[in-house]
Structure formats: C-alpha cells, structure tokens
User: Fold this.
Amino acid sequence: MRLASISVDLDEIPNYFGIHGLKEPEGPERHLVYDVALDRLSALAKSAGFSLTLFAIGQDMARPEAAARLKRAKDAGHEMANHSLDHRYDFVRLGRDQIARQVEDGARAIEQATGMRPTGFRAPGYTITDEVFEVLGELGVTYDASVFPCPAYFAAKTAKITAISLLGRESRSIVDTPMVLSAPRQPYRVGRPYWKKGRGLLELPIQVTRGLRLPFFGTSITLASLGMGKRLARACVGDSLVNLELHGIDVLDQGDGLRSLAKHQPDVRVPSETKIERLRAAIGELASAGYSFVTLRAAAANQGAA
Ligand SMILES: [Zn+2]
Assistant:
C-alpha cells in the first residue's frame, strides 16, 4: 500500500524573523499564517481531496482568532498535531522537565482550542534527542515526525547560521548532530541513539528522495520549477509512506505583507499562486503514481498494524 501524508507546521511569522536574527514585526503580518495561509491550505486540500496534519504551536492558541481558525480546520477534517508550546529553537537543551512542559502544555492548549488531543509531535527546527524521545514516550505520544535525514538541508542550515553570524546577527536556529543524516528515510521505531532502528517510539521521517536524499518538502517544491518539483516527487515514488512537510509560509508571499522578510528569504519572493500551483503539481504526481492520502495519525496507525 502506498500512503502519502501532507503535514503543515504552523510556525507564525515572527519565527522567521528570529531565524534571520531580525527584529520581530509589530503589525498584522505577525499573524499571516493563521489569518491568511490556513484558508489557502484548506482550499488546496479540499480541491485536491485530502486532509492535512496541522502541527500547531500551543502558545498561538492564546489569540482567540487563531484558536477559532484552528478549530474550523479541525471541523473540516484536518488532524491536530503538536509542534510544542513555544517553538523554542533551544528546545532540546531545556532539560527534561521543561521539555516535558513544552510537549504536554502544547498538546493541552491545542486540545482546549479544538477539542482534539494531538497524538503526534514535531520538534521545533527538526532537532531532536534521545531525551526528547523518552519524554514523548512517557507522555503517551504515539508518533514523532521530526527526523529530517537530508544532507543538503543540513549543509544549507549550517551555512546560513554561519553567514548570519558573519553579518553580526544571531540566528535562533541550532544544528542537529550530523549523525541524523544516517537515519532511515522510511518509518521506523527509534533505538538509542534515535537515528538507529530499535523498539522505541514510531518515527515518521520527513521526506527525502531515494539516492541523493534531496529534500522533498515545501521550500524545495515552491522554489523549484514545476517540472523539477514533479521529478522530486517521482524520486520518492515506491516508498510505502511519502511524508511531505509544508509550512504555512509556503503559501504566502511578499505581497501579503512580508516585504522586509523577502530580502532574506527567496521563497517569499515567489508569488503565492505560483507556489500553490507547484505544490499542486508535485502532489498530483504522487496521486497519479497511485498514492492514497491520509493524515499522519492514520499513517502511524497503519504502521502499527503492519
Ligand atoms: Zn517549526
């Protein structure tokens, strides 16, 4: 059986300013992910006939409009999943108690807002540790989807953080151990260390292609030509699960109020209509290859049954 899941990390706009070491915006652009992107993503999902898995950040639920919009998405059939309470980029360094609080309070805030208790978790910035996996197991999380075994992304992130510090700014991002690059690229139960197979929590790694392990995720699809995006999709065909990860910002552009960010982030310069068309084409390629689209929760349950 060939399953594909499309998940979206709902990182709000100030996070991106933080990554680039820039001062956070003060205006309505702070809330573009919930106020604008969520509707565009829901429309894409509805027209293509699939449900999304939405990784929300708990603290965003403190804004009633965001909570109401997420509830509406849940009522439309999308899965609620947990992207931590505060999206701290130093999440893995907080110590066990604070890590547990970030996981538990994040899930609770999302449940209070939407009525659906998240069972899946994704760490901020794709960085995870054995300690986090232990905490997730203790808190009853049924799957994690944070491991991103992608050499190209790893190199680009390291280069970006270095470049930002050379400019005299400080990025809030941190880099994972390079050993994560040796992790399986298909669902597995984590061992110790977590990049090896074992009997621990179920990990659903973020999608990379076969062979070169190129990233098949929102940024690479929205920045690539239509044809290149389809080729990336075809390089994943054959996998039992294609776990396509997007971000809310993947369907926003500078015209939405992100001109100051566009200077630092090329994907923000691509018009949102173009980005959505590219996403639709890449997803369509999976559909024509016979993939059925399910939420990550359903994909995780299917792994359990297999
Ligand atoms: Zn995130």
User: Anything to note?
Assistant: The first strand starts at residue 3 and ends at 9. The longest helix spans residues 96-114. The chain has a mean pLDDT of 94. The chain has eleven helices and nine strands.
